[in-house]
Design goal:
alpha/beta, six-stranded mixed sheet, two-stranded antiparallel ribbon, globular
């Protein structure tokens, strides 16, 4: 089409200019004239102790303590600890492929053997640690499409079944050219987190532990509604994909908590639906049983709420709701 409109000479010149820009970056990195790595140098650099220690230190610094009722953390090492097994039901993933039914042994359970005496039941334990994941859900359901719907369902940030009563009546954006409808609204539809049983795991563990402390460690992939589990947790930590050793180093006090929330935690799903897509920090945040607001920039150490040069700069973490 370009040749028909501008002529072959003009189009060839245009393509050659594009090729020159693309290839310049490749040549500047030496991929053509010097494509081979120095194996000896690579062996010295990749996975070296200095870089590994810096990487692990970054993991430690990111772990965020949200709750520490009555100062239950840090836990003493070598006490008896119960770590329950997870169950995740089959669900359609992002590519609409069915995942298998999974019983998951938390990675933290194996790592915990270096810190505690890991026991098999809550009744034997001095404390419990629940390693869970933030709610997992996908916003498309082929069955809804088969039944005449658009296929779009709410992405839920809570564990229990959620009905999108406050969602937009009509979506801002339409569907792709292969869809019959240009409306992706999911108002009035339901969704449930695939890992809903993570919540049951925490509730059941707390019931069986009684007055003994229950610590919840959440692998946070999205903001989540904490209201379902927070009241039953004596301490809550969130991480963003670090090794279980880093979390356990914080739980035991080998490393003082330093991380701050990089996002807001919503009070409920209604506030998620009401927030503006193009405006920051307009979400009503969750307030826990200790009166702390799970705002952007909130975090705790063992002495209380963190107040340092970071919180002074970003200035959102230390707000409390008046009771």
């Amino acid at each position: 089409m370009g040749c028909e409109k501008y002529g072959e000479e003009a189009m060839r010149s245009r393509f050659e200019r594009s090729a020159s820009r693309l290839l310049r970056n490749i040549f500047q990195t030496g991929l053509f004239e010097n494509p081979y790595l120095d194996l000896e140098h690579s062996c010295q650099v990749v996975g070296c102790r200095e870089f590994t220690e810096k990487g692990y230190f970054s993991q430690l610094k990111s772990v965020t303590l949200l709750k520490n009722r009555a100062g239950v953390l840090p836990l003493k090492e070598h006490i008896r600890v119960y770590i329950p097994r997870r169950h995740i039901r089959p669900y359609l993933d992002f590519m609409s492929s069915m995942t298998p039914d999974m019983h998951v042994e938390p990675a933290g359970k194996g790592a915990a053997a270096d810190y505690f005496v890991v026991v098999d039941t809550p009744e034997e334990a001095d404390a419990a640690i629940c390693f869970i994941e933030s709610p997992v859900s996908v916003g498309y359901d082929p069955e809804d499409r088969k039944l005449g719907g658009s296929g779009y369902v709410p992405v839920t940030l809570q564990y229990r079944p959620y009905e999108a009563k406050q969602a937009r009546l009509h979506s801002l954006a339409g569907g792709d050219p292969l869809e019959d409808s240009d409306d992706r609204s999911y108002r009035g539809k339901w969704n449930t987190a695939a890992n809903e049983e993570d919540l049951d795991l925490v509730l059941d563990t707390k019931k069986r532990m009684g007055d003994r402390p229950v610590i919840v460690s959440v692998n946070l992939k999205n903001p989540m509604v904490m209201a379902e589990l927070e009241p039953c947790a004596d301490a809550i930590l969130v991480d963003y994909g670090v090794s279980p050793q880093a979390v356990l180093d914080v739980i035991t006090g080998r490393f003082i908590p330093y991380g701050l929330l990089p996002l807001q935690m919503p009070a409920d799903m209604d506030t998620v639906e009401r927030q503006a897509e193009d405006k920051a920090f307009d979400m009503e945040c969750y307030v826990d049983s200790e009166g702390h607001v799970y705002e952007f920039g909130f975090g705790m150490n063992f002495d209380g709420v963190i107040e340092d040069e970071r919180t002074e700069k970003y200035g959102r973490q230390n707000r409390r709701r008046t009771k």
